[in-house]
Amino acid sequence: MSDVIQALAQAIDNKHPAVLTTIVDIKGASPAKVGAQLVMLLDGRTVGTVGGGKLESEIIKIAGQALETKAPGLHHLALREEGPDSIGTLCGGEVTVFVQAYFPSPRLVIVGGGHIGRPLKVMGEAAGFEVIVVDVTAGEDQVPELEQVALTEDSYVVLMTTDHISDEAALRIAMKTPAPYIGMIGSLAKCRTILDHLKADGLTENELERVYAPIGLDLGGTSPQEIAVAILAEIIACRQKKGIQERLVKTRRIG
Predict the structure, then answer these.
(1) Average pLDDT over residues 118-133
(2) How high does pLDDT run on average in the chain?
(3) I need a surface site. Which of 16, 53, 176, 227 has the fewest CB within 10 A?
(4) Residues 244 and 124 in one domain
(5) pLDDT tens per residue, range 186-206
């Protein structure tokens, strides 16, 4: 296994983003060779080479952009001082590079599990999420099990413990993280009461808008499986930046 592929595999195993760049075509003079590869890691380190110099610098820049856009693509670079796709060199050739970003699976964290959590776990895994079920002790105002889970910008948290005390404790932990989705199951009265507690402790309306409560899109289903579908649909809508109006309607209902 080459050093490049080994570095990419290690990043994937460690659930870290990485970008693989591969030279796929060359016309004319070029410092790169077809098949040359370079992997860029999240911290900016690189392994391998795609020709060095200005060409490699431009390809690394494209790799950095791929971490932002998450879109794979072919990129044409002209090794000339002027003209379309020129990079300011004198070789005179042309290079086509394929850039592919790799990201860890989004994480679905189900706090409490139970009769809805079980189908949600199965559906979440089928939808490509890494699913973590956090078991908690009922009635406790501390949830150390959740504090041990790394919640990132690509973590989606579902609170469905057996009681409001544990749900509120878990919510307080989740609110301190960058998780873009925090959903809490329960009646309007329960959700309103818990959010009022957080308001009394100083959290603002803007901060509490991150909380999806009651949880799930209003699809009309009532079985555990149907509710799980509604929750997962809302999570996917959040991840894809859809469903904003549904969220605003819920916020008005609770507030």
Answers:
(1) 95
(2) 89
(3) 176
(4) yes
(5) 888 889 999 999 999 998 888
Query: What pTM did the predictor assign?
Result: 0.74
Amino acid identity for residue 23 in this structure: I
Q: Which domain holds residue 113?
A: 107-254
Q: What is the total count of domains within the chain?
A: 2
Give the per-residue pLDDT at 75.
96
pLDDT band with cut points at 50, 70 and 90 for residue 255 = very low
How confident is the model over 206-224, as a mean pLDDT? Answer: 89
Joined together, the tokens standing for residue 79 give: 């090794």
Distance CA 110, CA 116 (A): 10
**98 with 113, same domain?**
no
Q: Nearest to residue 97, comparing CAs of 154, 167, 134, 48?
A: 48
Q: Are residue 119 and residue 164 in the same domain, yes or no?
A: yes
